[in-house]
Specification:
four-stranded antiparallel β-sheet
């Protein structure tokens, strides 16, 4: 039998790190959130701009997109500043964030505006993309609420909430919400994006050092959905949102 690894915060295999979602942390943003998953901290801000990308003009619908970056001192060794087109990983993550938010947004009710979510990692200890998705929804909610309050929109164009969490096998044990030491030693790791009604938006899974069977995959999905249920409750507490 595999020995259960010791986890940060003394947590059980199906337990997340302490999570805090703090909305309204930026004065000039239309919506913002500081998402903290243990020692991982991501500052998410939403900016509303008139107009849409050229390819979307005339569609009578808006657009929600994202940008993601790791700040230089967010890791133990300085991360060089990122410039557009420089790092494929950042582009892949920001596309994930954008897809996740659009999955619960009625773009046809936005009008021709663009909302950009900027997710800047100020401290990284694993799970930066999942913290970004979770915090970005809170920031998006804030931006949409500001549009409603100003009379720009008649009601919130949301169909629900979206959050994300990681899971994986470390030392043969299925664990929820991997921190960096766990992620770097995982045999299999998985990122799950899901909604408040239990539907899955995206699954990203990789056999880093091993393969897994269907039962093991189902175990990770079950753990992930349990984590997402907890995260959407924290989002509701932070925003007051209930569908």
């Amino acid at each position: 039998m595999a020995e259960e690894p010791s986890r940060s915060y003394g947590r059980a295999e199906g337990e997340m790190r302490p999570v805090t979602l703090t909305p309204g942390v930026m004065k000039n943003a239309d919506g913002s959130c500081l998402a903290e998953f243990g020692d991982t901290r991501v500052l998410c801000s939403a900016t509303v701009e008139e107009g849409v990308p050229n390819w979307r003009k005339g569609a009578h619908a808006g657009w929600v997109t994202a940008e993601y970056a790791m700040l230089p001192a967010s890791t133990s060794r300085r991360t060089p500043r990122e410039y557009r087109g420089r790092k494929g990983r950042s582009m892949e993550i920001e596309r994930l964030i954008g897809r996740s938010l659009r999955a619960v947004t009625r773009l046809d009710r936005l009008g021709e505006i663009t909302i950009t979510l900027d997710c800047d990692v100020i401290q990284a200890d694993g799970g930066t993309r999942t913290a970004s998705v979770t915090g970005a929804w809170v920031a998006l909610h804030g931006a949409l609420m500001s549009l409603v309050e100003r009379g720009r929109l008649p009601r919130l164009p949301l169909t629900g909430q979206v959050a994300a969490v990681s899971a994986g096998y470390v030392g043969g044990i299925a664990l929820l919400d991997l921190d960096y030491p766990e992620d770097s030693h995982a045999e299999v790791d998985l990122n799950l994006v899901g909604t408040d009604d239990g539907r899955i938006v995206e699954v990203q899974g990789t056999g880093e050092r091993s393969t897994l069977d269907r039962a093991q995959l189902d175990r990770l999905l079950d753990l992930g959905q349990e984590g997402i249920a907890r995260l959407v409750e924290l989002q509701s507490q932070a925003t007051g949102y209930r569908l």
